[in-house]
Design a protein that fits this description.
This protein has 145 residues and is mostly helical. The protein has 8 helices and no strands.
């Protein structure tokens, strides 16, 4: 996802008077800009950075949904709507079978050691942003048995 695409979607949401979508996309743009400033690349914002921020925001909203008390259904519905909008921008993640196949193909030599810490240290930089860390951890634990 590129920042310019997010901006166009925000403008479209503003024209359609879709406040929920506008707010969600606006917060994504703000988070991307903040991350770009923190990393010192204010002018040249790469697609990888945008995707990383989208995944982080998606995780944050998911936590908000999970921790919201059941008595506040209005708030839960608001968080769910926001989650659905952000999920539409999130890059496709690898599932457990894809992760397992990838690891067996590319990291067979490291997997042979059965050292989970060593495997995770080697694999995480390659799969960061392509698969959820929990899924990677579960697959590695499975392969180490």
């Amino acid at each position: 996802m590129e920042l310019e695409a997010l901006r166009k979607d925000m403008v479209a949401a503003m024209k359609a008077k879709d406040k929920v979508k506008k707010d969600a996309v606006s917060s994504l743009i703000a988070a991307v800009k903040k991350a770009a400033i923190d990393e010192g690349c204010r002018d040249d914002i790469k697609e990888e950075l945008v995707n990383r921020v989208i995944l982080k925001e998606l995780k944050t909203v998911k936590e908000q949904i999970d921790t919201c008390p059941d008595s506040r259904q209005d708030l839960k519905a608001e968080y769910q709507a926001r989650y659905d909008i952000i999920a539409g921008y999130a890059p496709q993640q690898m599932d457990a079978q894809e992760v397992k196949a990838f690891l067996e193909e590319k990291f067979a030599d490291v997997l042979a050691t059965k050292n989970k810490g060593q495997i995770m240290k080697t694999v995480m930089p390659v799969l960061k942003g392509k698969a959820d860390g929990k899924v990677i951890n579960q697959v590695v634990a499975e392969l180490c048995q």
